[in-house]
Amino acid sequence: MDPLKIIIFIAAFGALLLIGRILSASSEVHAADAPRRLPEPASGVSPIPQGDLDERGPTVIGSEIEFPIKVPPVEERPDGSYNRPNILNYYFAKTDLLHGPADSDGLFDILFVQAQDPATRYRLEYRYTVATPTGLRRLLEQEKLASLYLDSAPVIIVQRWDLALILRTVMDEIMKSYSGEGSDPNEQEVRNRLAEE
C-alpha cells in the first residue's frame, strides 16, 4: 500500500474524530446545567401536560420554600409515640405554591404531603383534594357532570386560594391522626404494625 494513501487515510480519520468530538461536546449536559426535576406525581395522577405550564416556568415545591405556618416541633411522648411526622415536602399536582391558581377563587387540585414517621422512619404520602366552591362549579360545568363523587382523598374546601390556611387544615388533621383522635383506623393499624417491626 502506498504510504501517501495511508497518511491521507489517517489524516481524514483524525479530522472526522475531531469533528465528532467537537459536535458531541457542544451537546453535553452537566449536572449543574440540567433542568431541575420536579417530583413525580403519585400513582393515579397524570403529570401536567407541557401546554398547561405558563410563562412563569416550572412550579415551586414545598421543600424549596419556607413552611408558611408555625407547627410544633416533633416531640416524643412518654409512651414512645410522636405528636406528628416530619414533613419532607408538599406540592400540588398542577398549582404553583407561590402564585396559586390563575383565579384565586377557582381552585380544584390534589395536594400531596410527603412525610416521615419519626419512630419507624417509614415514608408516608398524604393526599388531599383541595377546592373552592367556584372551582367545584367550574369542574362540574367543564366535565358536564350533574354530580361529583370524590373517594380518592379527603376533601378540603376553602373560600379562595390561601396556602397557609390549606396547610394549617392539613397539619391539624395529620396531628389529630397522630394523637389517635378521629384517625382513620386503617392508618392507625399500619402505624401500630410498623412500630412493632
Can you summarize the main beta sheet? Answer: 4 strands, mixed
| N-end to C-end Cα span | 76 Å
Based on helices, strands and strand pairing, what is the structural class? alpha+beta
Strand content: 5-15%
Could you state the order of secondary-structure elements as H and E?
A: HEEEHEHH
SSE diagram, text form:
Blueprint: H1 3-26, E1 86-92, E2 108-116, E3 123-131, H2 133-142, E4 155-157, H3 163-179, H4 185-196
Parallel strand pairs: 3-4
Antiparallel strand pairs: 1-2, 2-3
Give your account of this protein's structure.
The chain has about 200 residues and is an alpha+beta fold. The chain contains 4 helices and 4 strands; from the N terminus they run αβββαβαα. The chain has one domain. Strands 1-2-3-4 form a 4-stranded mixed β-sheet. A hairpin with a 6-residue loop joins strand 2 and strand 3. The longest helix has 24 residues. The protein starts with a helix and ends with a helix.
